[in-house]
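[recover] target loaded
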């Protein structure tokens, strides 16, 4: 029984390695003890062998699993890299097709192998239409010093090279680099050209503008400057910048000295420094503009006059950021103005002297002529009264004409006397209510309106500082003129008003009378000037001359606007010093 069990055990132990027959033979040949011993030894070795093989298999399995995992990871990484590379290439192609650039490649013989990019369009080319064309043929030259060819030759040597070129009227900045294969060998070149035409043209416009500005500043002796105000606690230490013309104005060559507030005030006339410092400080504190004339002293001791203007720039919070300004050499202008003032003063003095002489002469002549005229008028009147019946009709008419002209000449002499007196009369200034003046003139002219339809329109007028009698005479002359020249109108309309602009008052009298051609307006205020025939409208042509003299003696101006058949507007001012409160 035991023998059979050992036989089965041995068979089971060897079943996977030996044939069952071999197990039976060993048992029959060597007996049970040998079989047991052999089976034990075999079993022990077999276990050791199985353990060793198991360990080897486990190690191989782990190594295999690790290798498989690495291969799988590598494959995944390659797939991801391929995907990213593809996406990158697609993005690059899209970018190249959109930006104003050209991307190209060549082989080692400098023959185009590709060309693409939006920049091809401005060159009149299409994608890859130059493939197979040598660079020398495309550029039309084999000169090795030609920038494009030289750059590609350097790239074939392994040196990336940049160059600029104007091609087909376009400006390009180009970069050429070596093109490598997977083994690191140079197989050609790859280039990128950016179209910078717009930038170049903008730069040229900027340079032209700056050149024109510099020329304008040089010609007009007008310079510009800029003072940094970021550090208000130390304004005198803040950076100050001058244009080239400022250097010239101060007697330096551009860039000859270091610009600072100290170097600026060193050239300012000592008597003007405090005034300028106060003006600058006030401008910074209040954030307002300022303009000022002051003197400067050049390094050679010459004194000049400059005019400065400045304004403050602030940031988002309202804090001063910088002060910008201009400075102009106005020496010649100010000296010319001073000469003009002197000449005007001298001319005014001479005019006054001549006017006084003429007025004295006119007064004397008119005064001396009145007596003969009165005699002529008196004797002709006696002849008419005592001898008229005995005179022939023609003689009577002659004497009548003589008397009429003598009387007319008398009126003219009276006008000349009055005009000369007006120029010599003392100006007794007082507050004059123009509303009352106009009302008084209306009342005095009431007989002129009898039997007529006259519409008076009078606005509220100011109170002015003036000579009362002269102001009354001024309005009397203007309103009587308006009444006279509206006589042909069935409905006369006369307006007295005042137009205000800030502190300036322009007074006027407007009517709907017969008017006159506007080209004749300058003649209107001349002495004895008439724009209408005496048989149409009476008068001796001195009324508006009187008005002009009165206005000018008050420091004002007078002018006329008219349209024939429509009406006339006489406007005048009395000078700022003569305008008082509003009535």
């Amino acid at each position: 029984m035991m023998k059979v069990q050992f036989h089965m055990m041995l068979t089971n132990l060897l079943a996977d390695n030996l044939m069952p027959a071999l197990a039976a033979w060993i048992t029959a040949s060597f007996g049970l003890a040998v079989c047991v011993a052999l089976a034990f030894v075999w079993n022990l070795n077999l276990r050791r062998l199985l353990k060793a093989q198991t360990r080897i298999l486990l190690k191989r399995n782990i190594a295999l699993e690790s290798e498989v995992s690495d291969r799988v990871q590598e494959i995944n990484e390659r797939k991801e890299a391929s995907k990213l590379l593809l996406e990158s290439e697609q993005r690059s192609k899209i970018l190249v097709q959109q930006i104003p650039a050209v991307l190209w490649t060549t082989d080692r013989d400098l023959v185009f192998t590709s060309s693409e990019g939006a920049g091809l369009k401005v060159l009149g080319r299409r994608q890859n239409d130059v493939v197979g064309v040598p660079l020398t043929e495309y550029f039309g030259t084999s000169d090795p010093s030609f920038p494009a060819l030289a750059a590609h030759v350097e790239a074939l040597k392994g040196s990336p090279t940049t160059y600029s070129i104007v091609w087909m009227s376009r400006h390009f900045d180009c970069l050429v680099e070596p093109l490598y294969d997977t083994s690191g060998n140079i197989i050609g070149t790859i280039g990128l050209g950016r179209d910078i035409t717009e930038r170049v043209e903008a730069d040229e416009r900027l340079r032209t503008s700056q050149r024109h500005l510099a020329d304008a500043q040089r010609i007009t002796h007008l310079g510009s400057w800029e003072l940094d105000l970021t550090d208000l606690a130390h304004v005198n230490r803040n950076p100050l910048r001058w244009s080239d013309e400022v250097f010239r104005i101060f007697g330096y060559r551009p860039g000859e000295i270091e610009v600072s507030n100290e170097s600026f005030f060193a050239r300012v006339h000592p008597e003007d420094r405090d005034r300028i410092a106060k003006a600058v400080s006030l401008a910074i504190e209040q954030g307002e503009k300022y303009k000022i004339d002051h003197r400067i002293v050049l390094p050679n001791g010459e004194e000049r006059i400059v005019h400065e203007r400045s304004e403050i720039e602030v940031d988002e919070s309202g804090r001063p950021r910088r002060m910008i300004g201009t400075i102009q050499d106005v020496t010649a202008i100010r000296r010319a103005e001073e000469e003009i003032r002197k000449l005007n003063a001298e001319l005014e003095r001479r005019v006054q002297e001549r006017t006084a002489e003429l007025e004295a002469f006119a007064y004397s002549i008119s005064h001396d002529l009145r007596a003969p005229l009165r005699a002529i008028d008196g004797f002709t009147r006696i002849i008419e009264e005592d001898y008229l019946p005995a005179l022939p009709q023609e003689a009577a008419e002659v004497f009548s004409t003589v008397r009429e002209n003598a009387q007319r000449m008398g009126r003219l002499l009276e006008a000349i006397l009055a005009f000369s007196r007006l120029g010599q009369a003392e100006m007794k200034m007082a507050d004059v209510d123009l509303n009352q003046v106009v009302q008084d003139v209306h009342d005095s002219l009431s007989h002129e309106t009898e039997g007529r339809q006259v519409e008076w329109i009078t606005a509220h007028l100011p109170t002015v500082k003036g000579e009362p009698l002269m102001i009354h005479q001024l309005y009397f002359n203007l309103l009587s003129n308006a009444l006279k020249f509206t006589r042909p109108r069935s409905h006369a309309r006369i307006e007295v008003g005042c137009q205000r602009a800030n502190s300036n008052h322009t007074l006027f009298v407007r009517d709907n009378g017969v008017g006159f051609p506007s080209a004749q307006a300058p003649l209107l205020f001349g002495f004895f000037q008439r724009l209408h025939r005496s048989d149409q409208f009476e008068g001796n042509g001195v009324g508006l001359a009187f008005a002009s003299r009165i206005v000018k003696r008050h420091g004002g101006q007078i002018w006329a606007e008219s349209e024939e058949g429509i009406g006339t507007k006489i406007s005048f001012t009395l000078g700022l010093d003569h305008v008082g409160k509003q009535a």
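[recover] notes: Residues 378 and 573 are 45 Å apart (CA to CA).
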